[in-house]
Amino acid sequence: MQLIISTLFTGLAGAVAMKRQMPSEHTMGFIGCSMAENVAQGYVANNGKHMWGPYGTSGMVVQSWTNTASSSWKLFDQQATKYGKPSEVWVQICIFQNPGATYGEVQQLIANARQHAAPGAKIWITGQPIYPDNPSSCFLAGSQGPQLTVDLAKRAGADTSLNVTYPGDFKLMKGEVQDGCHANTAGQRSLGKQALAFWG
Ligand SMILES: *[C@@H]1O[C@H](CO)[C@@H](O)[C@H](O)[C@H]1NC(C)=O
User: Fold this and answer.
1) Positive/negative CA dihedral, 65, 119, 84, 160
2) Which keywords, in A-to-Z order, does the entry hold (predicted)?
3) Residue 158 placed within a domain
């Protein structure tokens, strides 16, 4: 009887522990636009748990994040209140063709990310996805736009004074795009898998 009861309790405790959020869940935040949201959608669809899910960042290109008190950062802070200040943040450089983005603006995004994250947080940086079999596909960013964001991200990753990590490119192939820029369902799944490969 003793054994049965203790087994029962151990089982219950295990079940409760399983339901509780694991310590590493939702400890990674992100900033970016609808293209970051596409990654987050696919990440959640692929059962990714480490990074936040989508939180309504559509249209939030670089200039939405340069002012640390912007409505975009307020949205980020709401996520941080919900999950705790993130110990990692992915900074996605996402642009409209005009105005594009400067390296100075990218540096500002990184500084702001540190300010809104937990102390000592690890910062990741990428461009928006590129389109290897149709490079000028994304009219919103302009024909050279996606590559420009990747070049900025690589430059930041190589700049030791910034202490940020460039994990690689996100890629969208022709059949994975719905409007030239954004991922369709297959594209979201693909982006989500790429994110899992970078960050688990
Ligand atoms: C660089 O970032 C890492 C987190 O990725 C942090 O642990 C480390 O303290 C930072 N180094 C400096 C010099 O700030």
Assistant:
1) positive
2) Signal
3) yes
